[in-house]
Write a structure and sequence with these properties.
The complex is a heterodimer.
Chain A (H helix, E strand, L loop, with lengths): L5 H15 L2 H5 L6 H9 L5 E2 L2 E4 L3 E2 L5 E7 L9 E8 L6 E7 L7 E6 L5 E9 L4 E10 L7
Parallel strand pairs in A: 1-9, 3-9
Antiparallel strand pairs in A: 2-4, 4-7, 5-6, 5-8, 8-9
Chain B lengths: L5 E3 L3 E2 L3 E8 L22 E8 L2 E8 L8 E8 L3 E9 L4 E10 L2
Parallel strand pairs in B: 2-8
Antiparallel strand pairs in B: 1-3, 3-6, 4-5, 4-7, 7-8
Classes of the chains: A alpha+beta, B mainly beta.
Chain lengths: ~150, ~110
């Protein structure tokens, strides 16, 4: 190796920075397992948009606790109810957030939880009804302080 | 595991009424992503499952991942057709289970 010119030095420096940035950021490309998790949940079937209402803040100041409220339109009777709802976050180190399981005894397909978001990303919900139909909804949340590591 | 879970639900309900249940349990929900002062990863330790039953029948349950905030708060609804007991259970990664019970009566 000869002398390093300025451009090479810059590239080296850049590479080093990229390596030392939090590993979370490196994983955060839409390369986490969000798509696979959804595929596994739906069995490869296409989910239609609708029926789900996601209540999430547009901007979350603290990614450590982001309130998430879910409502799915459903009569919630023994004949027709929401069975399961999968939540994934496509910019977290692991895509999985939670899977909620309802029964006709739930009365309403509504729930609230608090989640961690590492950075600005999409939260995706997929609902499986008792008749096997699938619905989906997504919402982007801007995160100012990430919710893991640190 | 930590303190007694906090649960909020009405003491009584009309037959067929849909009530709201709020639960909160103290837990660090260690995600497995954090590192200690020596740079070693802190192993994951979270509550991975929550279930609610009413008189032995499942009402609501969920599988939780490390992306759930510390001190997990879970709010959901339940239809009350008879008087009885709600049973709640939180399962830890270490296998321990935290349980709680709440009774509900029917309004006359």
């Amino acid at each position: 190796m000869g002398a390093i010119n300025r451009r090479q030095a810059f590239l080296l420096g850049g590479g080093f920075v990229a390596l030392t940035v939090l590993p979370m950021a490196a994983n955060a490309e839409p390369g986490n397992d969000a798509a696979e998790m959804i595929k596994k949940f739906t069995g490869g079937k296409e989910a239609t948009k609708g029926k789900i209402t996601l209540d999430l803040p547009e901007i979350a100041e603290n990614g450590n606790t982001v309130p998430l409220a879910l409502t799915v339109e459903s009569p919630m009777t023994a004949e027709s109810y929401v069975k399961e709802v999968l939540f994934v976050a496509d910019g977290n180190p692991n895509a999985g957030v939670a899977t909620l399981m309802f029964t006709p005894m739930s009365g309403k397909a509504e729930a609230s939880i608090r989640i961690r978001l590492a950075q600005t990303q999409n939260v995706i919900a997929v609902a499986k009804m008792s008749d096997g139909s699938l619905f989906t909804e997504r919402k982007t949340v801007k995160v100012t302080i990430g919710g893991c590591g640190g | 595991m930590a303190d007694k879970p906090r649960i909020k639900l009405p003491k009584e309900a009309k037959k067929g009424e849909i009530i709201q249940i709020k639960t909160l349990v103290s837990h660090l929900m260690e995600s497995g992503q954090r590192k200690d002062a020596q740079g070693k990863p802190i192993p994951r330790k979270i509550i991975n499952k929550f279930t609610c039953e009413f008189n032995g029948k499942p009402v609501f349950s969920c599988v939780l991942e490390p992306a759930i905030s510390a001190n997990p708060y879970i709010q959901f609804d339940a239809r009350v057709d008879e008087e009885g007991t709600f049973k709640f259970a939180w399962t830890d990664d270490d296998g321990s289970v935290l349980t709680a019970e709440e009774k509900i009566a029917l309004k006359a």
